[in-house]
Automatic annotation (TrEMBL):
GO molecular function: ATP binding; protein serine/threonine kinase activity
GO biological process: regulation of mRNA processing; spliceosomal complex assembly
Residues in coiled coil: none
The protein's name: non-specific serine/threonine protein kinase
Amino acid sequence: MYRPGGFHLVHLGDTLDDGPARYKIVHKLGFGGFSTVWLARDEHVFQSKWVALKISTANQWRMIRDKQDAISTMYGSGALGNITGYRRMFTFEGPNGVHLCVVLPVLGPSASDLSRGLDCRLRPWLARKVGYEVAKALAKLHSHDLCHGGTLHQV
């Protein structure tokens, strides 16, 4: 899908922003049908900070931006409680079109990655806690007519 309307081709060491280069790409964290997610260093802060950059496909950037705008309004009103929000977003033009980049905090490994890293299954109490928190977050989104469209196997 690295063609017009598709994904933006990213290389380790690339820098992105809508102005002077700010975010330096360090590692690929994941991907989905409409975006890729990258670990990057924000080099415009006094001590560089780690961020996650979610880069949309060129044919989806407007739809994703509109959803992010709606979510931003809800964060401003406090309606989404402690659900993690994005720090900022910007668009940039690449060889495949215009892409939206959403800057997110880095939250840590998924529960399944953590389980694999420990080479064991999650303890039942922890699996229940993770499941409960995911269900609560999804219910909060649904109560505001938002729907998570991705898969949740990487919780």
